């Protein structure tokens, strides 16, 4: 389950063209992209376990996203990869070599911090060149590499400034240039877009994707933003409460979430989750009986999940009342309340056809239903959906 | 109306500042005037504001029998030595207190501060006995080490807040950039706390320069700092006010010069420390 073909192409690849022209030819000789394995990695702070024996395999050149809500252990995992946190148990391997107890500087890893962590007393050029200076690279060589790395992220004109004189987006690109200049084997990014405004975030996202493709360096990217994860990742690991609950391509995770928690976390608006009972090929929610694609023998309590985009207005479905209509021009999001007062959302790529206060009944295509065990929250259907 | 209020505000501000300045500056100006007077003019009553200035007092305290030049030399050696040693130990200690996680960190931080709570006079006798035992009385080494005991805790305590202001991530970035712990300290952390280092250095130097109690008890004929030498002008029979004032002016000169040069640093350093993390990046 953990091994995927190198760089799985996904339908979520962002379209090219409209983003910044980052990337370009590779920097100097091609860097050796590392494969990364975590084996039973455990992290404890005192009595609190923040990572429960996590296993993970990342392929060379992959853009791998660690996704999860705050406090789920994703940043801790990234910091363990960087060597900034010591593990309480388990091993970290890069290209098969145990690096668990290696210092951060000995791992050939570069990182972009959420706060960028630029050195305020140095110019942009000095910031970018710092990793090379630390390994006693000749000044002329540093100057050439700085220029090249800066051009790659389009900040060549800012080299003489100090970080304090830059905008947030420019600072972010300096941090990127500092990370790529040394052609690391592993590239770590900790929520690099979270301090940017919405428009810049979209642009930078495209730029990052291009940059990673052009560098071909294994990249581990931490985010709590599922949209970022979906658009950037070759594969995603979803973290919940210190455990990896699912690893897969964005399409797999969106299409077949492994647990109720993942289902509720991925997608905007999130998946509708309703308690019901599953018998044969039918799920009963309240008095409504709705056909689903899979059948089961004995009746069992389930959580029924349906994406807002899969909800339809049908005859004989779940009776609801229209609570709120959000008209987004070319699309609409409609919130309903069922008889028990539970919220159900429908996403439509058409203008709304119902009015607030109207009574309607809701259904879905049998294939659109996700069924989870009511007690454990685990998915009951096969992964391929 | 607004402008008249602004003018009033200005006048009020200047009045308050002027009053404050007068209170602070009066003894200095009085001392400066005294240093140019003859002993007769000094004792004249009512005090003379118009008088014929003389350089005799300065001539006497610089070249005369009661020259304080050797004492200025002693003060420079003691204060510089104490300051250099203090900073040499205080910088890594403060860095450790601010950064590293180790058991009893809180306790050791409190210990540093607790040493400041002892009244110096209570330490004089133990210090005297210790120095006597090791032959450190009336030596530069002895006095410098004693100065370390109070300047080091103060310097550490002052430096910790500057180190704490440097984001941890910046240091981690340096570690990932292969700087190592020493490289991170040297290239990334220290340049960012240089304002704090300047302020602390100045305070430590001034404290050592102005110190009297330990210097008078633990010093002697070999090591007699300028604050102690001032005392020579005061005897049971008479006080040589004019020479005392001239000596005091000379003793103050380095302090004032440092103050003028370091003023920008001090003000900046103090405000940075006051507004935690404000305007750093």
Report on this model:
- The complex is a heterodimer of chains A (385) and B (281).
- By secondary structure, chain A is α+β, with helices and mostly antiparallel strands.
- Chain A has 2 domains: 36-265, 3-Layer(aba) Sandwich (Rossmann fold), CATH 3.40.50.300; 272-373, OB fold (Dihydrolipoamide Acetyltransferase, E2P) (Beta Barrel), CATH 2.40.50.140.
- Chain A is built from 8 helices and 17 strands.
- Chain A has helices at residues 74-82, 124-133, 139-152, 168-180, 198-215, 226-232, 250-255, 260-265, and strands at 36-45, 48-58, 63-67, 89-94, 97-98, 109-112, 186-190, 218-223, 235-240, 243-248, 272-285, 288-306, 312-327, 332-338, 343-348, 359-363, 370-373.
- In chain A, the strands form 4 sheets. Chain A has a 6-stranded mixed β-sheet, with helices on both faces.
- In chain A, helix 5 (198-215) links the parallel strand 7 and strand 8.
- The longest helix of chain A has 18 residues, at 198-215.
- Chain A is elongated and about 75 Å long.
- The two termini of chain A are 16 Å apart.
- With 281 residues, chain B is mostly helical.
- Chain B has one domain (59-274): MetI-like fold.
- Chain B is built from 13 helices and no strands.
- Chain B has helices spanning 2-35, 39-43, 56-63, 69-99, 105-114, 120-134, 140-165, 168-176, 180-192, 194-210, 213-218, 226-230, 241-274.
- In chain B, helix 1 (2-35) runs antiparallel to helix 13.
- Residues 273-281 of chain B have low confidence and may be disordered.
């Amino acid at each position: 389950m953990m091994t995927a073909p190198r760089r799985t192409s996904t339908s979520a690849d962002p379209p090219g063209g409209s983003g910044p022209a980052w990337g370009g030819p590779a920097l100097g000789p091609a860097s050796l992209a590392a494969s990364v394995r975590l084996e039973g990695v455990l992290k404890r702070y005192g009595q609190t376990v923040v990572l429960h024996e996590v296993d993970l395999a990342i392929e060379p050149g992959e853009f791998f996203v660690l996704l999860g809500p705050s406090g789920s252990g994703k940043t801790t995992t990234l910091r363990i990869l960087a060597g900034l946190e010591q593990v309480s148990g388990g091993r970290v391997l890069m290209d098969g070599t145990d690096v668990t107890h290696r210092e951060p500087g000995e791992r050939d890893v570069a990182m972009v911090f959420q706060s960028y962590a630029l050195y305020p007393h140095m110019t942009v050029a000095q910031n970018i060149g710092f990793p090379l200076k630390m390994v006693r690279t000749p000044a002329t060589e540093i100057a050439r590499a700085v220029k090249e790395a800066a051009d790659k992220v389009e900040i060549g004109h800012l080299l003489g400034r100090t970080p304090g004189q830059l905008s947030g987006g420019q600072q972010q690109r300096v941090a990127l240039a500092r990370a790529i200049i040394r052609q690391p084997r592993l590239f770590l990014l900790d929520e690099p877009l979270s301090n940017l405004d919405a428009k810049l975030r979209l642009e930078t996202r495209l730029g990052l994707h291009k940059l990673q493709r052009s560098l071909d360096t294994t990249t581990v990217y931490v985010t709590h933003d599922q949209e970022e994860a979906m658009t950037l990742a070759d594969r995603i690991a979803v973290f919940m409460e210190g455990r990896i609950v699912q690893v897969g391509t964005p399409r797999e995770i969106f299409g077949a979430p492994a647990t109720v928690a993942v289902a509720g976390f991925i997608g905007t608006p999130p998946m509708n989750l309703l308690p019901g009972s599953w018998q044969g090929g039918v799920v009963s929610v309240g008095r409504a009986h709705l056909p689903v694609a899979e059948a089961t023998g004995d009746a069992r309590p389930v959580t029924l999940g349906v994406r807002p985009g899969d909800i339809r207005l049908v005859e004989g479905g779940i009776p609801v009342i229209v609570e709120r209509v959000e008209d987004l021009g070319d699309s609409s999001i409609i919130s309903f309340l069922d008889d028990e007062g539970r919220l159900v959302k429908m996403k439509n790529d058409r203008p709304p056809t119902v009015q607030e206060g109207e009574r309607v009944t809701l259904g879905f295509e049998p294939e659109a239903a996700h069924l989870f065990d009511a007690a454990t929250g685990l998915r009951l259907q096969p992964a391929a959906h | 109306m607004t402008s008249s209020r602004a003018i009033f505000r200005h006048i009020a501000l200047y009045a308050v500042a002027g009053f404050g300045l007068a209170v602070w500056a009066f003894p200095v100006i009085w001392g400066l005037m005294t240093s140019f007077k003859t002993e007769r003019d000094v004792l004249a009553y009512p005090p003379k504001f118009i008088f014929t200035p003389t350089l005799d007092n300065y001539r006497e305290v610089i070249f005369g029998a009661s020259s304080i030049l050797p004492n200025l030399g002693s003060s420079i050696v003691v204060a510089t030595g104490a300051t250099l040693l203090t900073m040499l130990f205080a910088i890594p200690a403060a860095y450790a207190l601010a950064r590293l996680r180790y058991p009893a960190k809180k306790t050791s931080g409190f210990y540093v501060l607790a040493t400041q709570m002892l009244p110096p006079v209570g330490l004089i006798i133990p210090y005297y006995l210790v120095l006597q035992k090791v032959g450190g009385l009336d030596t530069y080494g002895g006095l410098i080490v004693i100065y370390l005991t109070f300047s080091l805790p103060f310097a550490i305590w002052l430096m910790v807040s500057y180190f704490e202001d440097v984001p941890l991530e910046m240091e981690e970035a340096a570690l990932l950039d292969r700087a190592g712990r020493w490289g991170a300290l040297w290239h990334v952390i220290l340049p960012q706390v240089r304002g704090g280092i300047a302020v602390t250095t100045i305070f430590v130097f001034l404290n050592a320069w102005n110190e009297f109690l330990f210097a008078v008890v633990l010093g002697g004929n070999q090591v007699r700092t300028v604050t102690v030498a001032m005392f020579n002008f005061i005897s049971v029979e008479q006080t040589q006010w004019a020479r005392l004032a001239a000596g005091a002016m000379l003793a103050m000169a380095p302090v004032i010069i440092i103050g003028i040069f370091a003023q920008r640093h001090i003000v900046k350093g103090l405000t940075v420390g006051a507004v935690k993390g404000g305007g750093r990046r």
